[in-house]
Design a protein that fits this description.
CATH architecture: Alpha-Beta Complex
Radius of gyration: 17 Å
Structural class: alpha/beta
CATH class: Alpha Beta
Number of domains: 1
Helix content: 25-40%
Order of helices and strands: EEEHEHEHEEEEHHEH
Number of helices: 6
Strand order of the largest sheet: 4-1-5-9-6-10
Largest sheet: 6 strands, mixed
């Protein structure tokens, strides 16, 4: 039986453009794109086709949830919580994960100081846009390809709240990452 979340009406897009063939890799026997679409629908958000024109989203008057196919196991509950937060407070909500890798500065082509990981996050899913933000934007598929760049643009123009996403929402960049995520999200039998 599907879970039900008390969420406002909203439209959601599973982002697949410019992500190569990885959206069609399998996780738990399903393509990443199917897992991401299921999560979006299970959260109570109405999925729309990526080919939907932005003007149509604006005309709906509803918030828009951008869900990256490379974060296929983002829990429906987290998508729903981010949507409610964005609508209640009328700010953009961006799901992020902590950075665990060592990150170095590069200055004039030379490796420099190590950046403090506590000051860094990695954008994942979702990015939730309240209706006023949707109305103030005119985005096409090319604008939705790089969520980190989109997040930077949004932070320059609108109030933004970063919400730490659960580990299951981690972004995958390779088949090895998919295998790790599959192990992380395996349901134990017994």
């Amino acid at each position: 039986m599907p879970m039900e979340y008390d969420v406002p009406d909203a439209l959601g897009i599973v982002l697949v453009d410019d992500r190569g063939s990885l959206p069609f890799a399998l996780i738990h026997g399903e393509a990443l794109v199917a897992a991401a679409a299921w999560s979006l629908g299970e959260s109570g958000i109405t999925p729309v086709d990526l080919g939907t024109r932005w003007a149509g989203l604006v005309d709906s008057g509803e918030p828009v949830v951008l869900h990256d196919v490379l974060c296929p196991m983002t829990p429906p509950s987290f998508l729903a919580e981010c949507l409610v937060d964005a609508v209640e407070h009328q700010h953009v909500v961006i799901g992020v994960r902590p950075v665990s890798d060592t990150v170095k500065q590069v200055v004039d082509g030379f490796v420099g100081a190590t950046l403090d990981r506590d000051d860094l996050v990695r954008v994942c899913s979702p990015i939730v846009l309240p209706p006023a933000v949707v109305a103030g934007l005119d985005l096409g598929p090319e604008d939705l390809a790089d969520l980190a760049s989109l997040a930077a643009v949004l932070r320059d123009r609108y109030p933004v709240r970063l919400r730490e996403a659960p580990p299951e929402a981690r972004r995958v960049d390779s088949p090895d990452d998919v295998a790790v995520l599959e192990a992380l999200t395996a349901v134990s039998e017994g």
